[in-house]
Here is the input.
Amino acid sequence: MEITEVRITLRDEPKLKAFANITLDDCFVVRGLKIIEGTNGFFISMPSRKGRDGTYRDIAHPINNETRERIETVILDEYKKELSKQGMSTDNIAIGRRPQSEGQSEGQSEGQSEGQSEGQSEGQVEA
Here is the structure.
């Protein structure tokens, strides 16, 4: 699988720094990824939907860490390029590593940490 296109839309919000859309193999688009600045650095929040019970569930997400890291790296590289075009610094932008919580459920995304209420990922922002 190759990420053949990345589109970044910058935002000026405390945690939500940008939206990203990616195209895979020139034939499949995933919209609504979010670039979030968390307490441990930047991370990519996968597209999600809020359920009736108030929890957030990823609509699309990588199956393994290798794919997640590849997506994060490509998106953050494009984010840095977009910031540079705007004359903004990219020195402090790095992927934050989050430890996996014990007892993390299968449907819980990697970005969720212990103590987050109602299944919400760190920096979850409603669009």
Observations:
- The first strand starts at residue 3 and ends at 10.
